[in-house]
Amino acid sequence: MKKIIHTSKAPAAIGPYSQAVETGGMLFISGQVPIDPETGKVVDGGITEQTEQVMKNMGAILEEAGYGFADVIKSTCLLSDMANFAAMNDVYGKHYPGNPPARAAFAVKELPLGVLIEIETIAVK
């Protein structure tokens, strides 16, 4: 049985998908982009500010579902430009100081709303 996870502390879905779905002790978080849930707009700034907002959004969804960053086992980071990898990595790494999850990072041609980063995550209890 799947449970749909939703919090107002993260951006509402901008399409036919859920913020996250939990099933069998696993939480699948949809790709998060750097939208401030209070304004509904992409945050100002560059890759650092955008990655910080993405991680904040993921943290809110994890918390809503009763998980934390320590429960994350896999992330996929999509970047609009691999030149932003090091700066993204600095922000991302602050949330995983020990035993970081498995991860893939890709440069893609384009991301929704013209953002610089999108991250999807899987967590397990």
Structure description:
- The protein has 125 residues and is of the alpha+beta class.
- The protein has one domain: 60s Ribosomal Protein L30, Chain: A.
- The chain is 22% helix and 32% strand.
- It is built from two helices and eight strands, in the order βββββαβαββ.
- The chain has helices at residues 47-64, 85-94; strands at 3-5, 20-23, 26-32, 35-36, 41-42, 72-79, 102-107, 117-124.
- The protein has a six-stranded mixed β-sheet with strand order 1-2-3-8-6-7, with helices on one face. Strands 4-5 form a two-stranded antiparallel sheet.
- Helix 1 packs parallel to helix 2.
Order of helices and strands: EEEEEHEHEE
Shape field: globular
Helix-residue proportion: 10-25%
CATH topology: 60s Ribosomal Protein L30, Chain: A
Global structural class: alpha+beta
Q: Find the count of extended strands (DSSP E, 2+ residues).
A: 8
Average pLDDT, rounded to a whole number, is: 97
What characteristics describe this protein?
globular; 125 residues; two-stranded antiparallel sheet; six-stranded mixed β-sheet; alpha+beta; 2 helices; single chain; 60s Ribosomal Protein L30, Chain: A
How would you briefly describe this protein structure?
The protein has about 120 residues and is an alpha+beta fold.
